[in-house]
Design goal:
By secondary structure, this protein is α/β, with parallel strands linked by helices. The chain has a single domain, classed as Nucleotidyltransferase, domain 5, CATH 3.30.420.40. It has three helices and five strands. The protein has helices spanning about 40-50, 70-85, 100-105, and strands spanning about 1-5, 10-20, 25-30, 60, 90. A five-stranded mixed sheet has the order 3-2-1-4-5, sandwiched between helices. The protein is globular, with a radius of gyration of 14 Å. The chain starts with a strand and ends in a 20-residue tail after the last helix. The model has no long low-confidence stretch (mean pLDDT about 90).
């Protein structure tokens, strides 16, 4: 099963799964602030759907769009799960890439991790 994590929308986290591993994504939105982080949304998703993390065979995480904190959190969660379960993690930036994620995950190898890409320089502190 492939997992997709998208934190680009400031109103919600989007969790999607492809249980067929052929690009047939089922999407599950998790509104913020009900779920303060993608980890909370993932925990709820796996519990609510009676799924095991051990069923994962790859993770795609969206980068380049969204808030600095949401991107870093999503990338950290994806990389941590990839490391812990020995599964590949890939980055994606635009909705146009979504149909290509399953083939990319099939070719990806574990042990290569994603770095966050930002749409603007981080604003820390004042303005």
């Amino acid at each position: 099963m492939y997992l997709l994590i998208d934190s680009s929308n400031p109103e919600q986290y989007l969790i999607a799964v492809d249980s067929t591993e052929r690009g047939e994504w089922q999407e599950f939105p998790y509104p913020r602030p009900d779920y303060a982080s993608p980890l909370a949304a993932l925990a709820n998703f796996f519990l609510a759907n009676n799924l095991a993390l051990s069923a994962l065979s790859g993770i795609a995480v969206r980068v380049g769009v969204g808030s600095f904190t949401a991107l870093r959190t999503a990338v950290t969660v994806a990389n941590t799960l990839g490391f812990a379960w020995g599964i590949p993690v890939i980055a994606w930036e635009s909705a146009a890439e979504k149909p290509l994620l399953a083939p990319r995950l099939q070719q990806a190898r574990p042990g290569i991790y994603v770095s966050p890409a930002y749409s603007a320089p981080p604003r820390i502190g004042g303005s």
